[in-house]
User: Fold this.
Amino acid sequence: MTNFKCAVEYDGTLFNGWSKQPGQRTIQEEIEKALNNILNSETNITCAGRTDKGVHALGQVINFETEREISPEKLIVRLNSLLPDDIAIKSSAKTSESFSARKSAKYKTYIYRIFNHPVRSPLYRTRAWYISKPLNMEKMKKAASFLKGKRDFSVFDSYNSVFDYKIVDLKDVKVVKKDKFIDMYITGDRFLYKMIRKIAGELVRIGRGEQTFENFKDSIINKNKEQLGKPAPSCGLYLAKIIYK
Assistant:
């Protein structure tokens, strides 16, 4: 058996998320369907991190095993010829038997993008959260800095399970303004369900003056979800990079 590792980019707008679901268009199903065609066998892929409906990826990573002899170069060409226009395989390589796209990952970096300008952009309507009014960058950066570190982030978890492990190590959280865009870069060892979108939503509320830093801090420390607003829309979220051990 040969273990292949591939980097994948996709526009998640027209997908119902990563994971296969009956009667739904998903990224996993499209890639596995193409692989089954090429390898003439049922192929199951493992991804570094499952993404939700409407979420994009710049650097998703998958792995799969096959008995079929095929070069990485030929595999990438054939896959991209079969995949729909909103998915592309960026790289392909043979890897060790022990490699798992999910279990071998040490950290993941997500980017949340905001289009911040008085006039909306049709080009970015499905690829960024449109906010017309200026945001207070200094307040947002202060709140982002507080998030760094290893702690219980259950306040940002949408499952509300008392049994789930809620400790997350956020290695880096930063907010960067580039012309009309505000990008939030968030790197962590794992993420709770909708955690990134909830963080992005709170940082925007702080930037708008709808949330105070004190309430934000208190909500995290005391796990008080009542002081938090809605998650940011999925269209602005990108799985950007997977860092391996």
User: Anything to note?
Assistant: The mean pLDDT is 96. The longest strand covers residues 105-116. The beta strands are 2-10, 46-47, 56-66, 87-95, 105-116, 129-131, 149-152, 167-178, 181-188, 237-244. The radius of gyration is 19 Å.
